[in-house]
């Protein structure tokens, strides 16, 4: 059964609703996080393809696939039945595969459990079914073949890694995943309280810059004045 604890009660989730993924990355760059926590190549596919106001914010619920000959045993239950309310489902596979890691029934169950969206570090399938559900899915690409013939789930709610320009980005269970039309960013849970004030300051500065630039001020001048 899914947990009754909703991330909507988490003040960090509530605060992050006010910011874009770009705002989060700007803050993480200031905190010396490589690539600002950006997860490259993962884009919005549902309920629309790279358009609309879709945004997800929530703690990560991680799922790790591996080849069937991996020494780790297959996870004893289906991960989709233990998603906490308010979570963002994050599914990855090492090594990467052309098989789809995730499908429409997974989103049906995730939505019923109160998940806010799913992020697939790989391919997913049943695109129209996902869109008919109105359920947010971010992924690298689409596919048709299920993973079961070649891959198995070996870990759930354990740290996973995603490659980013030769550097590994680690996603720990409970780290905040933020997704919108710009992409997906991971905000380490331990940095959230430091990052939020930086976001607020940056957004205020950018808003002031935009007003003055529209009045005719140069970008260079506005940057000097407000940043």
Automatic annotation (TrEMBL):
One of its GO terms (molecular function) is 4-hydroxy-4-methyl-2-oxoglutarate aldolase activity. Keywords: Magnesium, Metal-binding. It holds the Pfam family RraA-like. Its cofactor is Mg(2+). It comes from the Eukaryota. Substrate binds at residues 103-106, 125. Mg(2+) binds at residue 126. SUPFAM superfamilies: RraA-like. This is Uncharacterized protein.
